[in-house]
């Protein structure tokens, strides 16, 4: 065991740089050499696997379980973002999904293989019946429940997702499953994720002793949620596009006139307004007014342009750019 005192130059009270670099990797050596040293403090043993350095039976058990899971290939890697330039699973893709948080949490648990399916519960020492509660034919693990269960096949055929089921059923882990799903088109991704989420909800109801929803009921819910989430995605993209459209100043000696018109079909009335700014973005003039006997939104925008130009002409502005947000 290397002691801190062995790495210090006691005459100067600083690190022995050559010894530190010979003992540790470049990354660790650089971090150690940046640490301030107090030569008056004594070395003390610390438990590396606890953030406070204190040994406990709980922390030792956690290390033993982690090593066992590593050996069996079932360990869940950290879901922290991977630094640029390094390969990793890409957990941020889950949190960037355009779905409610409850769906994201479900997908995160699925990727970690931490859903409370019967095989996972039995593996953790619980005495449970490992048969799938949806079909009572085979042991329940994520692969069976979501892709091989006889009941879920009916839903996938109704949603025209059978070819994707065959591909996804070959995945060996939750992470491999999500990477395969992300290789599909956005609409198919959304359909598959929503179906997995709703099927898990239906399974939990059956496991609690409630009646199992029919395949038609589950497919109807999937179609509904896909439509609702799709609307949210479209609205979010439109909001992003609006936010990205920032006002740009005109060239020097040119004035930019931003106009807008409004229209109310029930009364055939509307309004108009404008604002004039120079190349520095300074406010020069603005105005507004009401519109009567307007037939269409296009007419309202045209009248807004006309009235704005009339006011601008009175101010003597001749070199102008007319800008409107109307499509």
Concise account of the structure shown:
This protein is α+β, with helices and mostly antiparallel strands. It is 47% helix and 11% strand. Among the domains are: 92-243, no CATH class; 255-324, Ribonuclease H-like superfamily/Ribonuclease H (Nucleotidyltransferase, domain 5), CATH 3.30.420.10.
Structural commentary:
- With 327 residues, this protein is α+β, with helices and mostly antiparallel strands.
- Among the domains are: 92-243, no CATH class; 255-324, Nucleotidyltransferase, domain 5, CATH 3.30.420.10.
- It is built from 13 helices and 6 strands.
- It has helices at residues 17-23, 26-33, 57-72, 92-95, 101-111, 118-123, 142-148, 150-158, 162-168, 174-181, 186-207, 215-244, 297-314, and strands spanning 8-9, 14-15, 255-264, 269-277, 283-291, 320-324.
- The strands form 2 sheets. A 4-stranded mixed β-sheet has the order 5-4-3-6, with helices on one face. It has a two-stranded antiparallel ribbon with strand order 1-2.
- Helix 1 (17-23) packs antiparallel against helix 2 (26-33) and helix 8 (150-158) packs across helix 12 (215-244).
- The radius of gyration is 32 Å and the shape is flat.
- The protein starts with 7 loop residues before the first strand and ends with a strand.
List strands and helices in order, with pairings.
Elements: E1 8-9, E2 14-15, H1 17-23, H2 26-33, H3 57-72, H4 92-95, H5 101-111, H6 118-123, H7 142-148, H8 150-158, H9 162-168, H10 174-181, H11 186-207, H12 215-244, E3 255-264, E4 269-277, E5 283-291, H13 297-314, E6 320-324
Parallel strand pairs: 3-6
Antiparallel strand pairs: 1-2, 3-4, 4-5
């Amino acid at each position: 065991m290397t002691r801190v005192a062995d790495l210090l130059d006691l005459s100067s009270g600083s690190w022995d740089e050559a010894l530190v670099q010979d003992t540790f990797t470049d990354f660790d050596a650089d971090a150690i050499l940046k640490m301030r040293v107090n030569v008056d403090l004594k070395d003390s043993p610390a438990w590396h696997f606890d953030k406070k350095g204190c040994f406990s039976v709980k922390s030792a058990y956690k290390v033993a379980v982690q090593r066992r899971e590593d050996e069996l290939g079932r360990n869940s890697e950290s879901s922290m973002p991977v630094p640029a330039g390094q390969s990793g699973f890409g957990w941020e893709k889950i949190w960037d999904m355009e779905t409610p948080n409850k769906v994201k949490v479900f997908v995160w648990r699925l990727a970690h293989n931490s859903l409370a399916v019967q095989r996972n519960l039995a593996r953790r020492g619980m005495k449970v019946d490992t048969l799938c509660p949806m079909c009572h034919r085979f042991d329940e693990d994520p692969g069976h429940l979501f892709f091989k269960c006889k009941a879920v096949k009916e839903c996938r055929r109704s949603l025209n997702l059978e070819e994707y089921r065959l591909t996804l059923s070959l995945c060996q882990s939750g992470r491999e499953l999500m990477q395969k799903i992300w290789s599909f088109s956005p609409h198919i991704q959304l359909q598959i994720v929503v179906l997995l989420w709703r099927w898990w909800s239906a399974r939990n109801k059956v496991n609690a002793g409630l009646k199992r929803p029919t395949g038609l009921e589950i497919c109807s819910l999937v179609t509904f949620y896909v439509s609702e989430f799709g609307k949210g995605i479209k609205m979010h993209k439109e909001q992003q596009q609006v936010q990205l459209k920032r006002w740009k100043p005109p060239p020097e000696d040119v004035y930019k006139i931003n106009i807008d018109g409004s229209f109310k079909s029930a009364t055939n009335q509307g309004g108009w307004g404008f604002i004039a700014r120079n190349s520095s973005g300074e406010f020069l003039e603005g105005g507004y007014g009401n519109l009567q006997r307007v037939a269409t939104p296009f007419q309202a925008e045209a009248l807004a342009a006309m009235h704005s130009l009339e006011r601008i002409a009175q101010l003597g502005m001749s070199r102008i750019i007319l800008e409107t947000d109307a499509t």
